[in-house]
Amino acid sequence: MASDLLNVGSQSVLTAQRQLNTTGHNISNANTEGYSRQSVIQGTAHPRQFGGQSYGMGVHVENVRRSWDQFAVKEKQIATTNYAAKADVEQNLEMMSQLTSSVSARKIPENLNDWFNSVKTLADTPNDVGARKVVIDQAAMVTNNLNEFHESVRLQAGELNRKLDVGVERMNQIGIEIRDLHRLMMRTPGPHNDLMDRHDQLIEELSEFTKVTVTNRANGEGFNVLIGNGHTLVSGTEASELKVIDGHPDVHQRRLAMVEGKGIKAISEKDIDGKIGAILTSRDEHIPLLLDEIGRVAAAFSYQVNDLQSQGLDLKGQVGKPLFTDVNSEAAAKARVVAAKDTQSELVVFIDDISQLRGGEYSVQFSNGQYHVINPLGEEAVIAPIGQELHFDGLRVEVRQGMAQGEKLFIRPTRHAAGEIKMTTSDPGDIAAQSFQASTTNAQGQADFKIVNVGTIKEFEVVVSPQGNEFAVTDTRGHILLPPQAYPPGGQVTVGGTVFELTEGALPNDKFTANLNAAEGDNGNLRKIQNLQTEKVMDDGETTLIGLYHNLNTDLAMKSSMASSETDMARMEKQAAEERIAAISGVNLDEEAANMMKFQQAYMASSRVMQTANDTFNTILALR
Question: What family is this protein classified in (predicted)?
Fold first, then answer.
């Protein structure tokens, strides 16, 4: 009997001791991040049968339970992913707002207005070389500001790619740490309370980068950790590797991929979320928005000014030359197309109508003999080619080498325009202040008539024959200057040193008139250029050049405001999830202090049981 009592007492002492140890462990880790409160679950020992009766045999420890709720933890993981994504998007938008508020960006509309004002001043004295030099200098400032802003935004895209590399590297490290935890758990039996705390911490950190799903493996072989929409990062005791690979077809638009054996499987950016998703959103949506819209400003400005230059005469009496690089140069037209490295196709994109020009990215896919085009708004259309050209949204796409079946490429009409714009002259005399007449008022067809160079003959008419298959050049009195030629001409036409172009599309008997005699002090062409400041030449006649920039600022401000509101909401959701976790898993020091006293008393009482058993045993021995 004494031995039974001693056994009951010793088990009770051990149980109380474990309760004290666990309580002390809780108190010690009250401020440890990620720690979950532990509690000893004790149960009644199996009773002993004697004399037809059942006698209790004390207590034993069943397990040490971790205060944890999988639904609360999953809710926190989701909230963590959502908050990390929203906060990073807000931060990146704030960075872009700072870019548009930088000195170089603020000076873009200021310098555009200053340039137009200098044109207005020159219009008062069009032959003043000093005033002409001011126009040239102001134009150089506009191009420099556009170049600087484009470069600043481009560098931010590079910085986001660097952050992507760092994020993926950390995700791989987390995967290895989780794998090592799984291996340690398999080597040591029993509940792994502290290891599971560390496991949850790593999962939560991983949740900041991407959405995470954790599932149990069969036979207690750890867990599967999946990222995004089901890509396995950790499978039990094995970890996969994430890589950042070149984009397709744009190699600079780097993307995620999972190494699977000897192969690599690309991961869609739509599958990611979290910080990585925010980086991809900013790099692939917000940065291009800045580049495209400021590129629209640059392309529209240079296109319109160069076009008006060709409609006037410079200080030497010649047709005005471009002040800025040609938006339709061969290099610029080719740079608008993004195709895979191994493509055999060749498409070249020219801007024909600046008023219809959009920013953003078009995708062109060739399928079953048709060109499927998706515009920046996501609207798809099948574009029927006219000869070897596609026409849409003010663009003319020359198909010089056809696309393969199923091939897809991208068109970015304005992405590089702000970086490409440059001055092509520093000579003040090249400004075409004086206007001349190259009229199509007596033509009913769609042909374009353009003066390229001024020679000795400055007044003439181009007349299309009644049959519409020939044209001739006469002076204003009807005298033949150039006998009938085949229409349309194969290239430029020269008459007395004056060069002009006449495209196809004229109707029979159409007449085109040219008067290249400039008047002293004439400023007609400068007035046309000056009107660009207020004319709504963009968005199908809805927006001015400078209005494009202000619209960009407004759009960014709205996006930043919306991102801030979404971040605040996500923050509150995350805080609520953390509070639920704290209520379930957190250590209450007042409660633990009370438990310490309770288990201390139990320990002391159990010691008395052992003492009583010892005294009883000694008494029995003394009876002998």
Answer: Belongs to the flagella basal body rod proteins family.
Shared domain check, 187 and 54: no
> Residues 171, 246: one domain?
yes
469 lies in a domain?
no
Are 50 and 5 found together in one domain?
Answer: yes
Same domain? 201 vs 272: yes
pLDDT bucket at 3, cuts 50 / 70 / 90: low
- Alpha helices, DSSP H, located in 513-585: 524-531, 545-585
Domain contains 521: no
By mean pLDDT, which of 31-35, 285-289, 443-447, 610-614 is the weakest? 610-614
Determine the pLDDT at residue 573.
Answer: 95
d(CA 390, CA 372): 11
Greatest pairwise CA separation for the chain in angstroms: 156
Examine the domain organization and report whether 570 and 612 are in the same domain. Answer: no
User: Pairing between strand 255-260 and 241-245?
Assistant: antiparallel
What is the pLDDT averaged over residues 450-468? Answer: 91
Entry pTM: 0.84
Mean pLDDT of the chain: 90
Residue 1, pLDDT above cutoff 70: no
Same domain, 221 and 246: yes
CB 551 within 8 A of CB 542: no
d(CA 174, CA 180): 10
Helices (H), 70-128: 70-100, 103-124
The packing angle between helices 70-100 and 545-585, to 10°, is: 160
Report how far Cα 81 is from the mean position of its chain's Cα atoms: 18
Helices (H), 274-404: 274-281, 287-309, 330-335
Number of domains in the chain: 2
Report the alpha-carbon angle 617-621-624, nearest 5.
Answer: 150
Q: Tell me the C-alpha distance between 204 and 197, whole Å.
A: 11
Instruction: Report, as an integer, the average pLDDT of 525-551.
Output: 92
Do residue 76 and residue 207 come from a single domain?
yes
Closest CA to 267 of 232, 302, 304, 307: 232
pLDDT for 374: 96
pLDDT in tens, 292-316: 999 999 999 999 999 999 888 898 8
The kind and range of the H/E element at 5 are helix 2-28
SS3 state of residue 401: strand
Domain that holds residue 266: 72-116+157-281+549-577
Cα separation values, 342 from 256, 330, 405, 407, 409, Å: 21, 21, 14, 11, 12
80 three-class SS = helix
pLDDT tier at 624, thresholds 50, 70, 90 = low
In residues, how long is the chain? 624
pLDDT digits (tens, 9 = 90+) for 460-482: 999 999 999 999 999 988 899 99
Angstrom distance (rounded) from CA 575 to CA 403: 53
